[in-house]
Amino acid sequence: MILMNDFKAEPETLIAAELQAVERVLRSGWYVLGEEGRKFEALWSQRCGTQHAVGVGNGMDAIEIGLRALDIGPGDEVITTAMTAFASVLAIIRAGATPVLADINPETGLLSLESVRRCITPQTKAVLLVHLYGQVRDMDAWLALCEQHQVALLEDCAQAHLASVAGQVAGSFGSFGAYSFYPTKNLGAIGDGGALVTSNAALADKAGVLRNYGQSVRYYHPEFGMNSRLDEVQAALLSVRLQWLEQYTAHRQSIAQQYRNALNNAHVKLLLAPEAVTAHVYHLFVVLTQHRESLQAHLQASGVQALIHYPVPIHHQERCGDIRRDPAGLQASETHALQCLSLPCHPQMSEQDVQTVIDAVNRFVP
Q: What's one GO MF term for it (predicted)?
């Protein structure tokens, strides 16, 4: 079976380096907020083109901490997409702010500029742009919109490690970028982890306080903070795995290009190809079909695992029926949720695996 992710197939050289990193931490006797964390923060901020990175417990906390560091909370609205992981919206709610859902561009799955424009009110304090599936697009237009309305542009980069436009990396455009290092991400830990990246020193300092109980120096708590720290073991592992990220990303991009060149089934639609100046990192390779259940079953029978990201848009979640949304509706999000299907696109795939997926999709008849 060709899996969506195959961690057991990772190379022995990587595993050996990770074991050495874990042993180094164990022998150091320092497990939280130490040298390994500072080292990874420096490496990751440099790779993202920002001045600062603050390691936290997970990607959702990175968003919440960023919002709180910007004093966005009760009475403030944050516009985001209905087509995202639930954590994006949950972080807004946990910060005390009010999420507002905008629709997507059906060609990309990304937030629609026109829909966001319809959602802006005097209470809007930020737009949380989700770089869904690993794609970054139209950043000049987003920056211009947010500047025009004097609201903060925030980036959910959970699926966009190394994604870029004209060489500028995701997370460096807005006030902050929030990264997840959940194991399935392009840069994944061996457990939970996250980071906030920014070039705003005051924001980074406050985020560092908020992640550690609101503590500025030991036993002094000027803020009501959280317990959300990237531990030393995960930081050490991420520093090792970061050395592989470039080649792993190139392999994902190669697989995606082969799919784009060879998938040829009238019942399966591809999302819009990235522009030449854009580096799409293909956390997921998503296709659209009106026959999703039968295609998924056909792929499973052909030895190919395919998953749905995401089958339930945010406003259809049980606790989210009353969330304010685009007055024109969220039809594109609802249609996408009914038709999207993710094909395997990960660094452990062989050329034969890729061809097997292509052949299986092309053979599909509803």
A: transaminase activity
CA dihedral 282, 133, 148, 69 (to 10 degrees): -110
The strand pair at 176-180 and 152-156 is best described as parallel
7-240 shares its CATH topology with 243-363: no
Instruction: Note the CATH number of domain 243-363.
Output: 3.90.1150.10
Q: Tell which residue, 346, 165, 173, has the closest CA to residue 245.
A: 346
Please state whether the predicted TM-score (pTM) of the whole model is above 0.90. Answer: yes
Q: Tell me: the pLDDT tens digits for 121-160?
A: 999 999 999 999 999 999 999 999 999 999 999 999 999 9
Classify residue 121 as exposed, middle or buried by CB count within 10 Å of its CB (0-12, 13-18, 19+).
exposed
Using an 8 Å Cβ cutoff, are 353 and 344 in contact?
A: yes
Architecture of domain 7-240: 3-Layer(aba) Sandwich (3.40)
Domain ranges, ordered by start, for the chain: 7-240, 243-363
Q: What is the pLDDT of residues 5-22, one digit of tens each?
A: 999 999 999 999 999 999
SS3 181: coil
Q: Tell me phi and psi for residue 106, to 5 degrees.
A: -65, -20
Per-residue pLDDT at 229: 98
